[in-house]
Amino acid sequence: MGIPPERFIDFSANLNPLGPPRGVRRVLQEAADRIEEYPEPEYLELRQAIAAAAGVGRENVFVGNGASEILQLWAYVNRPARAIVLPPTYGEYARAVRIAGGVVVDGGAHPEATGDVVFCCNPNNPTGRLLAREEVLSLSARGKTLLVDESFLGFAGEADGLTLGREAASGEGVFVLVSLTKLYALPGLRLGYAIAPREAIRDLEEAATPWRVNALAEAAGRAALADEAFREATRRVVTVERQYLTAELAGLPGVLVYPGAANFLLLRVPRTDLGEMLARRGLLVRDCRNFLGLDEYHLRVAVRRREENETLIRALKEILGGDGSV
User: Which domains are seen in the chain, by residue range?
Assistant: First the structure.
């Protein structure tokens, strides 16, 4: 594009617009000397911090090098022969099952289908749709295990009342997966966790790679989890900016905005080259054509800070035409 990388505004990555908590940056500097040491093998302090935040026991928590790694490990350990996905949704669910030798069924196209596992992303990626607890739990009738990805739940105002962590810990056929890289903007460090019954956690531990979470990620995770003020500020900013973006985008000619409760919005747009035209203006958005059920007319945009959101809206008005023409 002929544009320096630092000049791009990345609306394609659905990360916290506030960036990492300040305490995380400070802890990373302080923990720099720990790269000469192996991480604590059982991650007792990090697991305890997660357990305290989730209201479960430490023995019910597994930590990994990002949620995707845990998902792959779960599929490897459990070998689901048949999995139900509800598209459009995160593609790694289907990929993990196929790598483990299983078959994936489109649960939307086949509402009667059942399997060894049913995947639910709440709020869903890329639609942002948020389901009530009862709606999520009702999906358990379609699979022996209900695997719920709550990686974006922290951006929703009612997050504490919607998590199924306690159900997962109590052995009710629920497995909860959470990425910490989204809410705390730590994709370069990689960190995630799962909540499940003690026996399921033990199975994951036996199959997992030793020292899978590095010392810096472990320190950053503990610092991030301790920052409740950051989480509250995040929810306030994301709620306000999501409402702003929704209203502004809906007013553009030919643009359909899907209502969402996360830190991103799914759009249907009137032209297939819109992503490329935005990129040439230094704005990156997520092309969603590789999501099952979506096509080249669908884009996902992250909720960012007001100045950046305004830049996106101005660019879209220039491209689509402010007078209603396309």
Answer: 5-18+229-320 (3.90.1150.10), 22-226 (3.40.640.10)
